[in-house]
Write a structure and sequence with these properties.
Blueprint lengths: L1 H12 L5 H9 L11 H8 L5 H11 L7 E5 L5 H10 L2 E6 L2 H13 L6 E5 L12 E7 L8 H11 E14 L22 H10 L2 E8 L1 H12 L14 H4 L3 H13 L3 E10 L2
Parallel strand pairs: 1-2, 1-4, 2-3, 4-5
Antiparallel strand pairs: 5-7, 6-7
Helix pairs in contact: 3-5, 4-5
The protein binds S-adenosylmethionine.
S-adenosylmethionine (SAM) binds next to helix 1, helix 5 and strand 2.
């Protein structure tokens, strides 16, 4: 019951009514509808996590993906990471997200990038995945875990769909010291925010029989990234209107400012990890 209420509230947070239309309009600033877009062109819009496409590429390399890899992107948002992974490693990616509006936008953007033969999306809940055991060689979970209350169930489900020897990439915010200042990009208040400390996260992952091959505190890297990103000159020129603000609306700027503050003040930390699935 708690699960259902929390999941409904998270779905409301990412309700994306008319999003595909908004994106279509925003994209007219960079290319006509018939023109194929690149993954890099879309990166300011579709990588819904700290450090954007650079973080996705880094973690995908650390996971050792190959053209034969079958990848699941869990909580895929509007599909930027899934397209980036498929394009860079020439592999197939399935994206699953709670938000039907995000899945519709992800599918539209993938058509615009001519990647629909390798990247597909479906609406679904990370806690109840519609896949057979051992379906995937890698599972990505970028900036999603903090929206999921039942962390043991989440990690058990990831483990179930991952093949033996597969890799689990998780990139998320973790609790530091002091109260989190809301709103932040994943939650308007604490009711949809289920953060753990780095140590609690590790214990939950190990309980699900995951072993880290990479375990890294990226908080300072993110603080440095914010300094250069937020201190940039006002955008101008083609594509300058492309940002996550199109996806999350006017409040996104305040959410991002709070996120930066939370990390700077050590209320939150940033954790990157790649793990193997134990037997
Ligand atoms: C901050 S966004 C990150 C999107 C994407 N991973 C990225 O990095 O671009 C969080 C996403 O997780 C999704 N999400 C949250 N809880 C979920 C759940 N239980 N099952 C599937 N998706 C979920 C949200 O709908 C949202 O798209």
């Amino acid at each position: 019951m708690i699960d259902i209420i929390a999941t409904t509230k998270v779905r409301e947070h990412y309700a994306a009514t008319g999003l595909t239309g908004l994106i279509r309009t925003a994209l007219t600033t960079i290319a006509p509808e018939a023109e194929t877009l690149t993954v890099t062109q879309l990166a300011p819009l579709d990588q819904f996590h700290l450090r954007g496409i650079v973080a996705t590429e880094e973690l995908a390399r650390a996971a050792g993906l190959e053209p034969s890899s079958r990848v699941l992107d869990l909580g895929c948002g509007i599909g930027g990471p899934a397209r980036c992974i498929a394009d860079t490693f020439n592999c197939t990616v399935t994206g699953v997200d709670l938000s039907p509006g995000f899945v519709e936008a992800a599918t539209y953007l993938t058509t615009r990038c001519a990647l629909s033969d390798r990247v597909t999306f479906q609406t679904g809940d990370a806690l109840h995945l519609p896949f057979e055991d051992g379906t995937f060689d890698a599972v990505f979970l970028q900036h999603v875990a903090m929206n999921i209350e039942d962390r043991p169930a989440l990690y058990a489900e990831v483990r179930r769909v991952l093949a033996r020897g597969g890799r689990f990439v998780t990139y998320d915010l973790v609790l530091g010291d002091g109260d989190v200042v809301y709103p932040v990009p994943w939650a308007r208040d604490a009711s949809t925010s289920f953060l753990l400390t780095a140590n609690e996260t590790r214990a939950a992952l190990e309980h699900a029989a995951f072993q880290p091959v990479l375990w890294r505190d990226d908080s300072q890297t993110v603080i440095d990234w914010f300094k250069t990103t937020l201190a940039g000159s006002p955008p101008s020129g083609p594509g300058s209107g492309l940002s996550l603000g199109v996806v999350m609306g006017a409040e996104f700027q305040a959410m991002t400012a709070n996120l930066a503050r939370n990390i700077r003040e050590n209320r939150l930390g940033v954790l990157s990890a790649v793990l193997t699935r134990g037997i």
